[in-house]
Amino acid sequence: MDCGGEEQARQNGHAGDGGDPAEWKKVAELRAVVEAQDPAAKEEDDFMLRRFLRARDHNISKASAMFLKYLSWKRGAKPRCSITEAEVRGELVQDKLYIQGFDNTGRPMIYLFGNRHFAAKRDLEEFKRYVIYILDNTCTKLPAGQEKFASVVDLKGWGYANCDIRAKLAALEIMQNYYPERLGRVFLIHVPYVFMAAWKMVYPFIDDNTKKKFVFVADKDLDGTLRDAIDLSQLPEQYGGKLRLEGYKSSSTTL
């Protein structure tokens, strides 16, 4: 599995998870194809296979190619099945990202502060490991029956020093190709005009399904948008909520 959070759903079988028999039949067909080509596919559950199937519009040929590529990538990117804290400490200490709280649909929330990332100070290989580390840790917080997470990307104070096209493309590649159907929605807030130039460079590399999940929020709509999506108890204090974000420096167990 790419990450946890689905044990209860597995115990209950496929029934009641929102899928349909025809889709699960296609999942079984996909499993037969990928297991015949890579025995490691047997270690992955049906829910993961379904996400890859959905990411390729239920085309078994395309989904199998995508999934086999994932298995090959996983052996190189996560040879010990996970990324350790020590491998990404240089990124963690920057306190630019927090995995805390849930939205109103039960999706774990990621809060990212773009002005704390500096292209000149990052190592690209460590950054890639960091993306994997964050995605895996986010998925461990998924409640039963939930497969997606949501995010708020705060770009207040973002400037040229924070612009890092290579890192953005690397993160997109990992999320789209190896963690498909995990992203639910991203709210981009406090977006400065200068950011749009970088966005135009990255946008062509975002697949059509993922593009629909990015929501640019105008400052005048910020309070209403966030409060409609996230309960005050789960919304950070800086946005008028009651949740205190706790970074790596203040807690070794909370990002």
Automatic annotation (TrEMBL):
Annotated spans, Disordered: 1-22
Domain CRAL-TRIO: 85-247
Origin superkingdom: Eukaryota
InterPro entries: CRAL-TRIO_dom (IPR001251), CRAL-TRIO_dom_sf (IPR036865), CRAL/TRIO_N_dom (IPR011074), CRAL/TRIO_N_dom_sf (IPR036273)
PROSITE patterns for the chain: CRAL_TRIO
PANTHER family the UniProt entry points to: CRAL-TRIO DOMAIN-CONTAINING PROTEIN, OS03G0850700 PROTEIN
Protein name: CRAL-TRIO domain-containing protein
Organism (species): Triticum aestivum (Wheat)
